Amino acid sequence: MAAPSVVVIGAGQAGSDTAAALRSQGFGGRITLVGAEGVPPYQRPPLSKQFLAGARSVADLALRPASFHTERDIEFVGRDPAVRLDRNGNRVTLASGRTLGYQHLVLAVGARARRLPVPGARLDGVLTLRTLTDAGRLRDRMRDTGRLLVIGGGFVGLEVAATARAAGLAVTVVEFGPRLLARAVSGAMSAHLLAEHRAHGVRVLLSREVTALHGDGAGRVCEAELDGGERIAADLVVVGIGALPDVGLAAEAGLAVGDGILVDGHLRTSDPAVYAIGDCARFPSPHTGRPLRLESVQNASDQARCVAAALCGTPRPYAALPWFWTEQYGLRLQIAGIGTGHDRVVTLGDPGAGRFSLLCFRGNRLLATESVNRPADHMITRRLMGAGAPLPTPREAAAPGFGFKAFQEAAAV
Amino acid sequence: MAKITYRHPNGTETVVDVPVPNTVMRGAKINNIDGIEAQCGGSAQCGTCHVYIDEANALPLPAMHESEDDVLYGTAAPRRATSRLSCQLPVSEEIDGLVVHLPETQS
Ligand SMILES: Cc1cc2nc3c(=O)[nH]c(=O)nc-3n(C[C@H](O)[C@H](O)[C@H](O)COP(=O)(O)OP(=O)(O)OC[C@H]3O[C@@H](n4cnc5c(N)ncnc54)[C@H](O)[C@@H]3O)c2cc1C
Ligand code: FES
């Protein structure tokens, strides 16, 4: 019998970690890692932070050294996206025309930046940020720009705003929703971040919409028009209005999709030979009891290991606890758990001093801890939630003198 | 350049020369050493680059920052007196010969 073969489509965080985890978990068959980009797998988080600020080079972003693939006998195919998936023939076709046969296929195709659906969105100087190429372009443009407009108050937009502000640019953020990061954090955390950005001199407009972008006659963006007619001058516009999961290949092959490639608790698509993981996958989460699609390194990485375990013969349902971090102006926000649907919040520490945690509860149940510069609260929440250990109730957390360190010690986990 | 030994939980070890500047975490990554995940890429956020410094170590390691200490409260393998985040340990000639033990698990 031929050695089993796995083809991984998408050489980002999830794809690269799958190939690595397969080998470190003892997989002996063929592994092919197929990427659309011309560079080996790299880390995306620094693209809007240290890389954009010029504090990290391209070499620093590599997820693994150049020798990794040869050393672990992994075939890495770059700059050759998969264009067709033939599930009956267990084959994928790449743009170059090459076909790859597989026994198991892992779709780790990620997501792409949403484009702004308004006139002028294709003017020169209107950028999105998803890839290293995007980040390089943005970094170059920031050097000869005075006024930056960020459209969208999500993580990527706010990180770009903070980095640009620190570099001395005049920055405006326009957010369509009534608060920043509405889908990802509690109202109190949104308010804190808003105050932080304003204190650093960023002009933040909420509940406002960009309806058109205007060029300078030479095709370069110079102005944005808002609902109500107000105009904002800008030499550079970054559109950070979210990412769309890359479902095209899967949908064309008849796999079930719907804001993501739909997978079961073991991350299998509607075809048992095909898995989907990372930003492109919508999976049932035991932590929320409903299907979720997450855009985080933790999720990409943990799902990669889960699939590798299944392909190595030790399947287990995906149950890793979601966690996330962002950095803006030296403020380190870390989130453990998913706070959606919380109905009360207990604050630990002092928001005024920039060190605090918000504990988001539904009833007596802790759903998520949002920490600003209080990593112990984040880490201990992760540990306790991950282990299914008892968590503090709102009453316990609100009691004077409550601290996670003492709580963990008492729980002896 | 500094010689660093990464000892795996099964007792095997990998000895590598790590160029300066780098961190003990990056030293493992650039040499394809399993056992350090470093999900956050070295920003002291994730706790998945946890190592134990060898008990016999007498080399001058930098003091622990408060945030490193905090992150070590949540590592997957038990925290010990010798626990450090390898992304917070800069490689220098002064730590030539350092031995670190990799924990059983990082996440
Ligand atoms: C600017 C930025 C900052 C971020 N900051 C943070 C952060 O601070 N913390 C955090 O946890 N997360 C952060 N994230 C999110 C995190 O980077 C993603 O969740 C993670 O990269 C997802 O991994 P993935 O492998 O699923 O997708 P990706 O990393 O997007 O990789 C998918 C890859 O698949 C390729 N591909 C697509 N289609 C095909 C095809 N048909 N054939 C071959 N290849 C294909 C793509 O080109 C891409 O390289 C950030 C993301 C961005 C963009
Ligand atoms: S790499 Fe994340 S804490 Fe060290």
Write up this protein.
The complex is a heterodimer of chains A (413) and B (107). With 413 residues, chain A is α/β, with parallel strands linked by helices. Chain A folds into 3 domains: 5-112 and 243-312, FAD/NAD(P)-binding domain; 115-239, 3-Layer(bba) Sandwich (FAD/NAD(P)-binding domain), CATH 3.50.50.60; 330-411, Enolase-like, domain 1 (2-Layer Sandwich), CATH 3.30.390. Chain A contains 11 helices and 26 strands. In chain A, the strands form 7 sheets. Chain A has a 5-stranded parallel sheet with strand order 3-2-1-7-19, covered by helices on one side. In chain A, strands 9-16-10-11-12 form a 5-stranded parallel sheet. In chain A, a hairpin with a 4-residue loop joins β14 and β15. In chain A, α1 (13-24) packs parallel to α8 (297-311). The relative contact order of chain A is 0.12. Chain B has 107 residues and is of the alpha+beta class. Chain B has one domain: Beta-grasp domain (Ubiquitin-like (UB roll), Roll). Chain B has 2 helices and 5 strands. Chain B has helices at 24-30, 66-71; strands at residues 2-7, 13-18, 50-53, 83-85, 98-101. In chain B, a hairpin with a 5-residue loop joins β1 (2-7) and β2. The termini of chain B are far apart. The mean pLDDT of chain B is 96. Classes of the chains: A alpha/beta (413), B alpha+beta (107). The A-B interface holds A 24, 43, 45-46, 64-65, 67-68, 71-72, 297-298, 301-302, 320, 325, 327, 332, 334, 373-376, 378-383, 404-405, 408 and B 29-32, 34, 37, 39-41, 43-47, 67, 70-76, 107. Residues 9-15, 34-37, 44-45, 47-48, 81-82, 108-111, 129-130, 156, 246, 249, 278-279, 295-298, 300, 324-326 of chain A line the site of flavin-adenine dinucleotide (FAD). Chain B: GO terms for molecular function: 2 iron, 2 sulfur cluster binding; electron transfer activity; metal ion binding. Chain B: Residues 2-106 form the 2Fe-2S ferredoxin-type domain. Chain B: It comes from Streptomyces caniferus.
